[in-house]
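Before the break, one more example. Copy the sequence into your notebook; we will annotate it together after we see the structure.
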Amino acid sequence: MGRRQYDQPCSLACALDRIGERWSLLIVRELSLGPLRFSDLDRNVGGAPTDILTKRLRELEQHGIVRRRPLDLPATGVAYELTEIGRELERPMLELGRWGLHFQSPPEAGDVTPDTLPNAIRVILRPPAKASLSVGLRSGSQSFALRIEDGWVAARRGDAEEPDLTLAGDPDRVLAALLAGEAREGVDVEGDHAALRKLHAMVDLPDHLHEAARKLAADTDAIPAPA
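Here is what the structure looks like once it is written out:
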């Protein structure tokens, strides 16, 4: 069976012809944080059969959305990364994620892994245009950097440079601190505690998730901020 296409004179249909197949946008989601080897991408996407993942990557390459690049020495092999056109998918991807919150159940919304933590935070934050913050995240064995500027939350893998705030801990604990706007048990908060309160003020959730967010924030003990 050939690949499905809408074949319509419509820009939305044209976009879906390129990214509408199953797993394609989840590949974009993972590569939005930086390049990945195939094995890491296979693990992070979660559940895609290897042959289907290979096929989707080949299609995204053909459309100029993804490309391969050699790994920096001393590593060997290749990694996949988004092209300039591919990176333009970040904003619609995050907006689609925000829209998806309307259909996400509270247990699903709280089921976050270290790999998905940075994009989960990007989805629930609505920063004002004048906000400017650098945030580091550490969860599991992974580190991420968030940069909030001009109403946008940029994210990448790796340590943040001179962050205003760093949050370290299990994903649910980090989210609890963010949703409460203050330190929580099991979360290391380094830097400006006022920045954590600023992040809390940027959280924007659908009504049906508000109670779940309040409960998650309340289920962990608060830690007094340093004087």
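The longest strand covers residues 132-139. The CA atoms of residues 28 and 82 lie 7 Å apart. Try to locate both features in your own notes.
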